[in-house]
Each structure stands twice: as C-alpha cells, then as structure tokens.
Design brief:
six-stranded antiparallel β-barrel, globular, disordered C terminus, Thrombin, subunit H
Length: 254
C-alpha cells in the first residue's frame, strides 16, 4: 500500500524514467483502505487483503478516456475462467534484472475468481512482477473493456515471476471508492448520463443536467465536490505503491 509519506506522481509516457516535467502530473494526496495492513498475512492464493488505494492528482488528465469499472453484477456475470486478461505495468520484465519504469503489456488467462481477488496467469504465460503493483487488469465483457483488477501480490512466497499473481477485484470496493471521490458518468456505481433529446435541459425531471451543476434525472455526479474531484483521480489502479513480485516477459506497449 502507501509506504512512507511521499505522494506518487503520474505519467502516461511509455518510459517513465525519461518523462519530462510537463509529462508528469503531481500527486495531491492518497486514500488507503482502512482495513489494509502490511502486518496481516493474506496467506497463499486468493482471499481478501483490502489491498486497494487511490492517488488524487493535482490536476486532471483529459487526453485519454477513463477506464470503466464494472459493477458487481457485470463483473460476476462477465468474468469467466480461462478468458483473456490484459495486464499492464512498469515493473520488472525479468527477476534477474533491475530495470523498471518502462510500460509493457501482456495477455494471460483468468485462472481463478474469488469474491475479492483474482488469480491471473498460468505458469509460462505473460504475467506481473515486482514494480507492477497497482497496475490494471482489463477484460472484455460483452464487447466492452472493463478494468476488473489491480495488481496486489504473489500467490505464495516464491519470489520468481513465473507462476501467476493475485489481483484485487475492483467491484467489491466500489462503494468505498465512491465515498472517496466522484467518478465520471458510466464508471463504477454511477449510472450513465441521459443522452436523450432532453439531455441538455435544465429541468432535472427531463433528465438534463439540472441547475447549479446538479446532474438531475439520476445522472451520476461529475461535479468534483468530493475530495480531489472526479477528473483528479489517478485511476484507482495506480494508487497502490506496494511491494512484491511479478512479471515474466512482456510486449512493449507502443
């Protein structure tokens, strides 16, 4: 989780080591799940460790689309054993080296699904390694990309990055995430905004944005009134500055 008092920064650059100052967005604060503890032992395999956190950015990133979080029903119905999982990270590509900071992505199998965690990658498949913690796991659910997990740890005490890893499921923590910061429409627990003919109306009953910035019509909040505001959230997936292992060989993310 968050070690020490330093607040992480964020970049979209493929090589974080050579990112220029204007390509880096400073972190403004962090949110750690209150039940997470480094002193607790999650044990081997999937379980529940509350290994989830947020980084609040000092300014919004608007050059890319937000990743979409599945709700509990969508994640439960849509995740199938053996399906492809796309994994992304800036960590080690070999347990014999020490180079980190370059973004890679790979594809592996979804091996097991628990109520709070996922087991990703069979032996020999592309997988996470040290330095990837907090990185996202994406799956395709009914033709839509969904961010279903964030890298947590090794499945056991073996330090090599060749026999799979454990991700924290995002959907069981949606209520906690929403309690920390507003999220854009269509993510997590939030309902998509009304895009019908009355969507631009100031009448809340017509499904429009309402007055004084109120979303109206049951549309999700994008007001940014919560700490940091929706646009200032460094995708809850990069919130975890944790340790442990992972990754075998990956493709370079161009």
């Amino acid at each position: 989780m968050f070690i020490g008092t330093e607040v992480p920064a964020f970049t979209l650059e493929g090589d974080a080591n050579s990112a220029a100052g204007n390509q880096i967005v400073a972190g403004e604060g962090t949110r750690q799940h209150p039940d997470f503890s480094l002193q607790s032992d999650p044990g081997p395999g999937i379980g529940q460790w509350y290994d989830v956190g947020l980084v609040i950015l000092s300014e919004p990133i608007t050059s890319v689309d937000y990743a979409i979080l599945p709700d509990v029903q969508e994640a439960t119905d849509g995740m199938q054993l053996g399906m492809d999982v796309e994994i992304v990270g800036y960590g080690l590509i070999s347990t014999t080296g020490f180079d980190v900071g370059v973004k890679y992505h790979g594809v592996a199998d979804l091996v097991d699904v628990g109520p709070h965690e996922l087991f990703i990658a069979e032996p020999g498949q592309q997988q996470n390694c040290n330095g990837d913690s907090g990185g996202p796991a994406f799956v395709d659910i009914d033709g839509n990309q969904r961010l279903v997990g964030i890298v947590s740890r090794s499945p056991d005490s073996n330090p090599t990055c060749d026999h799979g890893g454990i991700d924290t499921r995002v959907d069981p923590y949606l209520e906690w995430i929403h309690a920390q910061v507003d999220l854009p429409c269509g993510t997590g627990l939030s309902e998509p905004c009304d895009t019908g003919p009355d969507a631009g109306s100031d009448d809340p009953d017509a499904g429009g944005p309402g007055v004084d910035g109120d979303d109206g019509g049951g549309c999700c909040s994008v007001s940014g009134d919560a700490p940091g505001g929706s646009a200032f959230l460094a995708l809850l997936v990069l919130g975890q500055i944790f340790r442990r292992r992972r990754r075998r060989r990956r493709r370079r993310d161009d």
